[in-house]
Amino acid sequence: MNYKIIENFLSNIYQLGFEYKIIVIILWAFIMFLLLRKLAKKDNEFYLKDFFKKKQ
Known about the structure:
The chain is built from 2 helices and no strands.
């Protein structure tokens, strides 16, 4: 198989990210903020569910 198409595609993505570093950094921070907030919410719900469980 010829992987030249994939190589060129990934090279173009890398070049685009290298040219627009500020936009990539802001986009990366926004995505990480969303993912970490979602993870923290799940973790918090799991912890509070066990903490406030009635002991019988």
